[in-house]
Amino acid sequence: MQITSEALERAIEELAKLPGTGRKSAQRIAIHLLKQTDEKVLTLADALIQLKKSVTRCSTCGTITDTDPCSICSNSKRQNGTICVVEEFQDVYLIEKTNEFLGRYHVLGGIISPMDNVGPDDIRVKELLQRVGNSDEPVNEIILALNPDAEGEATSYYINKLLLNYDIKVTRIAYGIPMGTELEFIDEATLSRAFASRTAF
Amino acid sequence: MQITSEALERAIEELAKLPGTGRKSAQRIAIHLLKQTDEKVLTLADALIQLKKSVTRCSTCGTITDTDPCSICSNSKRQNGTICVVEEFQDVYLIEKTNEFLGRYHVLGGIISPMDNVGPDDIRVKELLQRVGNSDEPVNEIILALNPDAEGEATSYYINKLLLNYDIKVTRIAYGIPMGTELEFIDEATLSRAFASRTAF
């Protein structure tokens, strides 16, 4: 096989490194880009460069942002004394999409996991306690919204224990039957959790 | 919903324009890139910029290349008097992968299609005749490797008719039963073509 364009080969190789993109998709994308105007491809390349250049972490909540503090932390309308604790900034995205939560966030940037050598000091727990102890912004509720797996549970318990020393309500999001499914397809662990967490009708 | 990073939003938006990439995949790719080193993302962005900057068409065969003439046209080992006619440069890629063909190519850059307002003058037929008439590189066989659909057939017939004036063998690649399939799953058109084109055992 003789390659006629090294530039195309290199673009395919780089695109194939992206998640969910094999060599065939990378080839399709590269050929698509070849057919686009220079401007469109430069816009894409620039968006990727800016992604790395301008995105930092908010020093308050730890989510990704272009400006520090982030638009949620600097939005006075969202100062309602509630902080939702999540594992990663993607979770902020997901929760924001629901338009259900109007307080602020705290991104741990990880989860306690002895298997992966991640302890309480490796995630932003200390920063959470600082925010809670900070009298500028009184906090009356912490909502734990971590994944319902072993690590998420352990981290939730750990944070709850630390917060016992403060006069703060600690809640967690409800785990139960997802909307739109049928009981038949639900695993036992979820079903038993749904029973244990039943609410008044 | 409050967006904390415009740069991330923009990257997702641009990535979602790529073929086969919806908003969810674009988000996954953007988050993946955020976690990579600056260098890796710059390498990707640069590969895309170079793709547009350095890739041109070979003035002889019409395939894409970084240098004109392309590495196949300038490779004297491939001057064996055979030219394979294909619709697009992707076909050169596909045929090169088989390591079966050791001659040169001619990329038409399209196919005759009255429905799409593409006539013989819109594709590189004139350039093919020029190559055939050029005494520097004697051509003794033209292999037509166009798609076996109405447009491909029409274009093949048209080119064959033009080449009747020259002392050149015109062949076409075999259309028949693909390897590794079962007759049961083959459509009638393919099966009847396979019968018509049967070869001695």
Care to describe what's here?
The structure is a homodimer of 201-residue chains. By secondary structure, chain A is an alpha/beta fold. Chain A has 2 domains: 6-54, RecR Domain 1 (Helicase, Ruva Protein, domain 3, Orthogonal Bundle), CATH 1.10.8.420; 64-172, Dna Topoisomerase Vi A Subunit, Chain: A, domain 2, CATH 3.40.1360. Chain A contains 7 helices and 6 strands, in the order αααβββαβαβαβα. Chain A has helices spanning 6-15, 23-35, 38-54, 89-98, 125-133, 150-163, 188-196; strands spanning 56-57, 64-65, 82-86, 104-107, 141-144, 169-172. A 4-stranded parallel β-sheet of chain A has the order 4-3-5-6. The model of chain A has no long low-confidence stretch (mean pLDDT 91). Chains A and B meet through helix 1, helix 2, helix 3, strand 2 and helix 4 of A and helix 1, helix 2, helix 3, strand 2 and helix 4 of B.
